[in-house]
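Hi L.,

As promised, Phosphoglycolate phosphatase:
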Amino acid sequence: MFKDVRTIILDYDGTLHDSTKNYIHAFKQAYAYLVEAGYAAPRDWADAEITKWLGYSSKAMWENFMPDLDEEIRSKASKMIGLILLETAQTGQAVLYEGALETLQALKEKGYRLVFLSNCSRAYMEAHRESFGLERYFDGMYCTEDFDFIPKYEIFETIRAAFPGSYLIVGDRFQDIEIAEHHPVGTVGCRYGFGFPGELDSADALIDDIRELNDLL
């Protein structure tokens, strides 16, 4: 199915990195601040209500989650989440899905070029690069903060200029799969990530474990 692929572009959170526990903690801390400051009403959150925001850029998340929140307060809460997530990576608390690094290594050995593309900040990307030695696997690493959080399908143009050839996109959210709506690329949807039912229906293939990617290729 993907025999002509030269470059594999991989999402990170929900694809390689299981950010569930750390993101839920960070979100609840930020929301507690909003409640204490009188900007939000107290409430209990189901995990799925929180993890649905994984895969969004911080800008898009807050524009959808609390669009009427004052920009200064929104920025403070957003930075709080970012700092907590950054600390978890810097202190060795981040967790990759089982088999993630082994899969990246196997794909490298097959001759594929691997590119990291995540809706995250540069500090977050660099912390995870250092924590897991990601530079050993990725030929290029891109975070949306460096592009003012524009959609991934627009950032793809930059990647295509740096890595000519045919492409495969691997991710767990519509932001990944929609790249194929704008460019001639193959797509693999990760059902084990944070997408909603049906969100990945247009993907060319679906996997339930990152290790299945190696079997597809």
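The longest strand covers residues 113-118.

Thanks again for sending the construct details.

K.
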